[in-house]
Design brief:
The protein is an alpha/beta fold and 279 residues long. It has ten helices and twelve strands.
């Protein structure tokens, strides 16, 4: 095979062989398949670390993240994961799901404690959207857990601070009730009110791992993340998700996603919404 190169302003090239190493590593550690069209993305996102560490090749960087378990190497592995994962989300994304929770789930859970899991929470917009819905409409206690493999976005979510531009999908009444606008130098930002933030917790978790320590959930949101996994990884993720579902739990995936061929243990309630199959 002729080795092609990707050149960036670092002056360092990412060879095909090096890209295959990173692609295989990401798949093994996170179940995420980096297709060949992601080679430029890998090179551009990692090039800054090569400059900071004064490395002369991507191969040297791969040796750092793959060869030892020293604290420095473990930290660098997490940094590489953070750089190579894609986190795209916004408030009230796919609003039909939140309408379904409001109109279908909450009346049936009236007066009960509701536990919800935003399983690929990214920077937290999904979890806080759900928090606004529950705070406004649920007659009972509630708690939300958000998880993501990327420590950077978890830190962002825990702070609950967002650019004001991210508020465009939040209905005005929710903005007034659950968000604070910054003043002075922070006038272009908003912060989720503490009454919501204290009921939403975020943790760094890998969906390929069993999540039994998180407990059982009534509603699980796993939206727009399965598209990054191949069939084998999807099956492993869904097996782990099912372990955390109560008998009457609901699993919600993205509107463009389907679990056909992934599992026989779930049944479709309506498009993109699943429950455990009754045996």
């Amino acid at each position: 095979m002729n080795d092609r190169y990707e050149v960036y302003n670092t002056g360092i090239v990412l060879t095909d062989k090096e890209f295959i190493l990173f692609s295989s590593w990401m798949y093994n550690i996170a179940g995420i398949r980096l297709a060949s069209n992601k080679r430029a993305l890998v090179a551009s996102r990692l090039s800054s670390r090569l400059r900071e560490l004064k490395l002369i090749s991507f191969g040297q960087y791969f040796d750092i993240i793959s060869s030892t378990n020293t604290p420095a190497a473990v930290d660098e592995r997490q940094r590489a994961i953070d750089l190579l994962t894609t986190n795209e989300t916004f408030f009230f994304r796919e609003p039909a799901h939140f309408e379904f929770i409001k109109d279908f789930v909450l009346p049936r859970k009236r007066g009960q404690t509701l536990r919800c899991w935003s399983a690929a929470s990214s920077t937290g917009e999904e979890a806080y959207t759900l928090a606004m819905i529950l705070a406004r409409f649920h007659n009972g206690d509630w708690k939300i857990t958000g998880t993501d493999i990327c420590s950077r976005v978890i830190s962002h979510a825990q702070q609950g601070v967002y650019s004001l531009m991210r508020s465009e999908h939040i209905p005005i009444e929710y903005l007034h009730d659950y968000c604070l606008r910054g003043i002075g130098s922070k006038s272009n930002s908003l912060k989720i009110k503490s009454e919501l933030r204290k009921k939403v917790t975020f943790h760094k978790e890998n969906l390929l791992n069993v999540q039994s320590r998180l407990g059982m959930f009534d509603v699980i949101l796993l939206r727009n993340v399965l598209i990054y996994f191949d069939l084998k990884s999807k099956q492993q993720v869904i097996r782990n998700i099912i372990r955390q579902m109560k008998s009457d739990s609901l699993l919600i995936v993205g509107h463009a996603e389907s679990l056909n061929g992934v599992t026989n243990n779930l049944q479709l309630v309506r498009p993109s919404i699943y429950s455990l199959k009754v045996s």
